[in-house]
Amino acid sequence: MKITDIKIIVTAPGRNFVTVKIITDEGLYGVGDATLNGRELAVAAYLTEHVVPCLIGHDPARIEDIWQYLYKGAYWRRGPVTMCAIAGIDMALWDIKAKAANMPLYQLLGGASRERVLCYTHASGADIAETVEAVGRRQEEGYLAIRAQTGIPGLPPIYGTDKSNTNSAAADALPREEVWSTAKYMNYVPALFEELRKAYGTELHLLHDTHHRLTPIEAARLGKDLEPYRLFWLEDTVAAEHQEGFRLVRQHTTTPLAVGEVFNSIWDCRLLIEEQLIDYIRTTAVHAGGVTALRRIMDFASVYNVRTACHGAMDMSPICLGANLHLDLWAPNFGIQEYSGYTEPMHEVFPHAWRFADGHLHPGDTPGHGVDIDETLAAKYPYERAYLPVARLEDGTLWHW
Ligand code: GCO
Ligand code: MG
After folding, report:
1. Is the predicted pLDDT of residue 160 greater than 90, yes or no?
2. What number is the average pLDDT over the span 362-377?
3. Which of 12, 81, 140, 385 has the lowest tally of Cβ within 10 angstroms?
4. 242 is catalytic
5. Which one is catalytic: 208, 211, 326, 352?
6. Within a domain: residue 401?
7. What is the pTM (predicted TM-score) of this model?
8. Mean of the pLDDT values across residues 253-272?
């Protein structure tokens, strides 16, 4: 089999997605997600200009060799743009291999280790009362694990609580700015979890994301303050590049810790996993170099009893979610899968075999990873420049978002 063509498809059915479609001389094709939120066209150009010409005529079965060729062969390693580009190609190649074998991808990885995949979704509100209600609505939809984020009275909407978050494209020509106060946040947020436990009891899994905004000592204190409410995890406490910072957080709290959604390679996870400073690793197929690389991270984590928790917000396309779900079904050290859901046009542009029921996901049994792209429909949603927001402290200092 030979690769005859590779299309890079950019579409915005509510937000921008970059999709790789690899076509072969035997009529089989595969698709992969290469979306990097807010920097989509950088990845599309990387692929079109630098990657696609190298792969025409190659054997799509040689996934590992192509991965190494794109990683080592570029000389410039890692980084989100490079790793998303490699991921798009890699997911499409695994899709082709599994279709050629007439098997769902999880069978090629070693088969299912479980019947279904536990997922968590998002709930948020402007204040504690609104957030408590939002969590209740999600629970009624069947979710068993819910990430709760609350706005802080007196401050404009903050991370995870601004409803326009889903797409800052049309409304804002430039990044929206949010205001952040660590002190106000840390005084307010423990009461949210106290109220959630009062309202819904101890069985519901509750998660919380601080989006890299705390210092290690602040994170340690928040972890301690939240201990009575038995969180499933506290996510992204400190800036992700500051891996040593987790030593201090870990020494002080028994609240489980998760991190890694902005990591791009196994090297970014190494210290945290080797020293068992975290409980969950959040790398995801699109940002960490595809199925080949994510499987390696999952295996490495399994050696240290760190569990998987793939990033699965709406800015990863349904193709990335599909690839993650095959890995989730297989991984012996699976923990949980994030699933924030998609809008109707997104479901239509990316028809998929994966399905949600009773708080769980399943990748489906269609050969390949089971997700496709409807190119005719995709063409109806042209790219629109969009940015993630930025955060500033009350005095104007730029902060982590
Ligand atoms: C999460 C993330 C997202 C990110 C978004 C960035 O835990 O799902 O923090 O909300 O902010 O994916 O593109
Ligand atoms: Mg997060």
Report:
1. no
2. 98
3. 140
4. no
5. 211
6. no
7. 0.97
8. 97
